Amino acid sequence: MSFNVLIVDDSNAMRSVIRKVIQLSGFRMDHCYEAGNGKQALEVLSGEWIDVILSDIHMPEMDGFELLKAIHQHEVFRNIPVIVISTEGSMDRVKEAHALGAKGFIRKPFLPEELKRVLHEVIGVGDEGEYQADTDECDF
Questions:
Q1: pTM of the predicted model, to two decimals?
Q2: Residue 53: is it exposed, middle or buried by C-beta count within 10 angstroms (0-12/13-18/19+)?
Q3: Tell me, which fold does domain 3-131 have in CATH?
Q4: Dihedral of CA 70/86/128/34: which sign?
């Protein structure tokens, strides 16, 4: 199974790095979409199926926390897991991100293995990228 990823960061270079790290990590990515701020991210979300969002905090026009608020107020988008990727790593910022609905938080710089682990955790897939089914609770 492959996933559609949206990377939101105001730095073209950082978006390229994140995309490359995802590819190096072995995470099964189908399509990778990019946005330079939260407003552009919402435009992408309105036209594309996205499985997971990786977002910076500090961006012009609409920052990452404003994006989290907008996503979680939207009936369809609120179920898309968001991982915040930021140089800010204080416990207050991490708590704030989670309070706004972020499912994960990664501090820059990061290793491919860490990014893959967090992606798998928030999406709910195993090490090989397959959904983990609990067969004891399945009716069919």
A1: 0.89
A2: buried
A3: Rossmann fold (3.40.50)
A4: positive
